[in-house]
């Protein structure tokens, strides 16, 4: 889950979900708007977690955010059932817009030909996760978590209990310091979210973590002052 604070499921979560889906023959819809097209180091988050969804919602990564586009990928078995019912009428004003389609095709071509997702998988994602976890020693950090090129830093008042600051808006204070120091991190409550571009380099990851630590120091001083 991204917008909720990069919530990473425990290792037992998806295997159990797959058992329940199979037992009761439940259709599985995977939301790939955030995790699709390379964010986890695989083409889709469903590949990362070894899932076989019946439908996948897709958007952002399909065009790398350069132009709005969304879509739905549907398994053949589901399409066959829909076709048995006759027409499946649906439409939107800008369905199949040629500009959006052209951008998506070009973006996917670049992802493939430049092997960007393979580089994320083998190099930059593991490096980002390693460097981010170095921030666990900071007195303001209760937890660092993430997968691929997604990360989250929880800001806490007490590391032992992970009690958060109440009424001080630690996340927004940190976000302001980040913007002032050339770093973009989103605040979800008191959790700082990181989602760098897929083309980020190891040197840029070093810069990101250095700036993040500086901003954490500034935030801690502001909260204690």
List the helices and strands and how they pair.
Elements: H1 13-24, E1 29-31, H2 45-48, E2 55-58, E3 71-74, H3 76-84, H4 98-113, H5 116-133, E4 141-147, E5 150-155, H6 170-180, E6 186-188, E7 191-194, H7 202-224
Parallel strand pairs: 1-2
Antiparallel strand pairs: 2-3, 4-5, 5-7, 6-7
The biggest beta sheet, please?
4 strands, antiparallel
| Strand arrangement, major sheet | 4-5-7-6
Overall average pLDDT? 95
Amino-to-carboxy terminus distance = 34 Å
Helix count, per DSSP? 7
Our Rg estimate from Cα atoms comes to: 20 Å
Large-scale geometry: globular
Number of strands: 7
Low-confidence stretches: none
Q: How would you spell out the order of helices and strands? A: HEHEEHHHEEHEEH
Characterise this structure.
- With 225 residues, this protein is of the alpha+beta class.
- It has helices at 13-24, 45-48, 76-84, 98-113, 116-133, 170-180, 202-224, and strands at residues 29-31, 55-58, 71-74, 141-147, 150-155, 186-188, 191-194.
- It contains seven helices and seven strands.
- Helix 5 (116-133) runs parallel beside helix 7.
């Amino acid at each position: 889950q991204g917008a909720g604070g990069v919530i990473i499921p425990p290792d037992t979560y998806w295997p159990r979900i797959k058992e329940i889906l199979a037992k009761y023959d439940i259709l599985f819809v995977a939301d790939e708007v955030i995790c699709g097209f390379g964010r986890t180091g695989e083409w889709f988050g469903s590949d990362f977690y070894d899932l076989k969804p019946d439908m996948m919602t897709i958007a952002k990564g399909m065009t790398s955010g350069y132009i709005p586009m969304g879509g739905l990928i549907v398994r053949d078995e589901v399409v066959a059932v829909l076709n048995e019912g006759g027409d499946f009428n649906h439409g939107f004003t800008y369905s199949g817009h040629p500009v959006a389609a052209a951008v998506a095709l070009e973006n996917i071509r670049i992802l493939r030909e430049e092997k960007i997702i393979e580089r994320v998988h083998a190099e930059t994602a593991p490096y980002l996760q390693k460097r981010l976890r170095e921030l666990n020693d900071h007195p303001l950090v209760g937890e660092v978590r993430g997968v691929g090129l997604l990360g989250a830093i929880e800001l806490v008042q007490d590391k032992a209990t992970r009690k958060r600051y109440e009424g001080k808006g630690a996340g927004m204070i940190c976000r302001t310091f980040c913007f002032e120091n050339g770093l973009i991190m989103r605040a979800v409550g008191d959790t700082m979210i990181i989602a760098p571009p897929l083309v980020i380099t190891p040197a840029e990851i070093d810069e990101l973590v250095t700036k993040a630590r500086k901003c954490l120091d500034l935030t801690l001083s502001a909260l204690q002052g």
